[in-house]
Amino acid sequence: MKRVTTSSRSGRSSSAATGDASTSSGGAAVGRCKCRCPGGLLLLRRGRLLSTTTSRRAAEGASDRFGGDGGERTPGVEGSILPGSLLDGTSLPENFSIIESSETMKDFGRMELKDMRDNIVARRNTIFLLMEEVRRLRIQLRVKEGDGDGATSAAALSEDAGAREREDEELYSSAIPFLPPVSTDTLKYYYWVYGLGVASLVIFGGLVAPAIEVRLGIGGLSYLELIESVGLPRQLAQVDPIVASFVGGAVGVLSALLVVEVNNVTEREKDKCFYCEGSGYLACGQCGGTGLVDGEACPMCGKTGKVMCTTCLCTGRLMATEHDPRIDPFV
Amino acid sequence: MMTKRQLGMGRAGLGGTTRGAARVSGSGWQTSGGCRRVMRLETRAVAQGPTSTTVEVEVQCPSEEHGMKCSLQRSVKFASCEPDSYEAEECPAPLTSLTPEQLEQAYERCGLVTEYYAKTFYLGTQLMTPEKARAIWAIYVWCRRTDELVDGPHASRITPKALERWDERLEAIFAGNPYDMLDAALADTVRKFPVDIQPFRDMVDGMRMDLVKPRYDNFEELYEYCYRVAGTVGLMTTPVMGIAKDFVGDTEETYTAALSLGIANQLTNILRDVGEDTRRNRIYVPKDELEMFGITEEEVMACSLVTEEGGTDERWRRFMKFQIERARRYFKMAEEGVMKLEENARWPVLSALVLYQQILDSVESNDYDNFTQRAYVPKWKKLRSLPISYWMVVENSLKKLV
């Protein structure tokens, strides 16, 4: 999670991108976005949406600069006529809902190619602005909540940031199965355990075992006797000790690596939306994923062969969280 | 003459007045006259004095009647179809939009989803024939997806419009135009088995209820909800389990038993999750019954009825005993009907019944603490249900022979 601290500017939010807009008359906003993005024009057309993103501007009466209630059509600029529902203040088609149907494929499908690109850029811009606003609002919220507890706003912010840095006890789930979650503190403990373990193993194997003549087998059999008693070839007892320890170590390392990797995959698998197996889409029920029905474009999925997975909403994740910019970008 | 078991549910404490006339009723349920499904239950309320009265509460559920009627009609029509003759509505032709391989893949995915989310249930389906198991998986996946719309991680984004969309997709499934591959599996299932659309519609309505209704005033309202979210499952799966073309038996009684099993399961769920539901601001137990036992809604929401020092409040204990008794009554009714299913379907269904009822045992052994403790059935007890239910099936068949 990014911890972003902002310098305390006055409550102006997202002023940079929206910039100055001049409108000729109510309804037809013909201004230019300061950032000169190609979507700027479209941004301005979307009357009410813009005015909500600039709370300060709204206070300044900016909303009427952008024209009416935004429900009016604004055709004409650059000859692109978008369906009215896409231009009105809510910025979404009237019959929009998060569950797709065969009709929604066609809603946006009616646009021209260039308009589509412009719309995508414009919407991306809006998303960014809104995300930024959410982030700043959250900061203010934390500040206000800090105020309620008697701390000053600046102190609360820095205290907050400092506390979080100190609070480096964030627990990560272990990469090794059966072990509890780890943090940097636990890791220091693990280093100690590792060091002691290796040292004692080496001492045991190298010094203690030969000294007290540790023998394998019941009744103090030597290795050669054990091999012979089990019936295996004698060569096994004549393996060079360095080779033996190398082989043993290598097998141990390979097993450990395998275990860790398997565990990693299992953990990642758990994160996947199980309905679509992480892809975010399901095969279309009409064309079976081919995109064609009787040689023509499938009416349900329009040649794509795929439709949305309603469980994960196309995120592919079991619980779409902060990794999906649609849901919650900054905390 | 009522047996002690029918009467004996422990003494129910009463804060307020006794309700209605004191009448003693006989068995748990009966069909009467024009109204096909009337549940008679007893509430045992003890007034301030030593005398006790047994009261009847009739529960009527018109949507359940309608659902059952539609399901019965459909199974009758299906049974009357000539093999290989497909008439549009009654006996629809098999799904042609997908190839057999694609359909197979779809069923496999349904199976994987079922296995992932409901391991015990999946094990139960392994006790059935493969065709039935696949059909059950398809139904399970649809029900689960519907439930996740309102209970899943994106529930806050579900609007009435989204549920309307979901309804449209359901109609399309039954019309042979499934939207995605999981819908396609269900579309194929409803063509092979006489499953009617009405229970599915009722389930979506039940989900709507969950969005708008955080409290239930009386048992009748709760019953309506239980029918919609669980009784419907019984109606959906019975045609798969046992209503084959050559099945000889009383279809309606089988459906009724399936409904009872659904209701029993849902009541068990509710009783197990009282504490968890308060955190989502939902109380499913009926308000008037809480009042009858002198408990207020605020006490339930505050989870103050179970404390570390004092243990479980006596009123809550009595209340839970009454609720559990009622749930057990529904299990009993379901059990009687399971024996009317097709031979190879009895064991899995009975296992599910035995297993789920053990959750009630677990609640009891937790001293009715469903606020801080989660009642669950350990693995060994789950495994134990299998031979127990098998024996019950065998015992019943032996009884019939004698």
Explain this structure to me?
The complex is a heterodimer of chains A (331) and B (402). With 331 residues, chain A is mainly α. Chain A is built from 11 helices and 4 strands. In chain A, strand 2 (292-293) and strand 3 (296-297) form a beta hairpin. Mean pLDDT of chain A is 67; it is low at 1-90. In chain A, the strands form 2 sheets. A two-stranded antiparallel sheet of chain A has the order 1-4. In chain A, strands 2-3 form a two-stranded antiparallel ribbon. Chain A is elongated and about 85 Å long. Chain A has helices spanning 15-18, 40-45, 47-53, 55-59, 84-87, 104-107, 113-148, 153-166, 184-211, 223-230, 241-271, and strands at 281-283, 292-293, 296-297, 306-308. In chain A, helix 7 packs across helix 8 (153-166). Helix content of chain A is 44%, strand content 3%. With 402 residues, chain B is mainly alpha-helical. Chain B has one domain: Farnesyl Diphosphate Synthase, CATH 1.10.600.10. In chain B, 61% of the residues lie in helices and 7% in strands. Chain B contains 16 helices and 5 strands. Chain B has helices at 4-7, 62-80, 100-117, 119-125, 130-151, 160-174, 181-192, 198-212, 219-241, 251-272, 274-279, 287-292, 297-301, 314-338, 343-365, 379-401; strands at residues 29-32, 35-46, 52-60, 306-307, 311-312. In chain B, the strands form 2 sheets. Chain B has a 3-stranded antiparallel β-sheet. Chain B has a two-stranded antiparallel sheet with strand order 4-5. In chain B, strand 2 (35-46) and strand 3 form a beta hairpin. In chain B, helix 3 (100-117) packs across helix 5 (130-151) and helix 8 runs antiparallel to helix 9 (219-241). Classes of the chains: A mainly alpha (331), B mainly alpha (402). The A-B interface holds A 95, 97-102, 274-275, 277, 282-289, 293, 300, 307, 309-311, 313, 319-320 and B 97-99, 102, 105-106, 109, 112-113, 116-117, 141, 145, 148-149, 152-154, 157-159, 161-162, 164-166, 168-169, 177-184, 187.
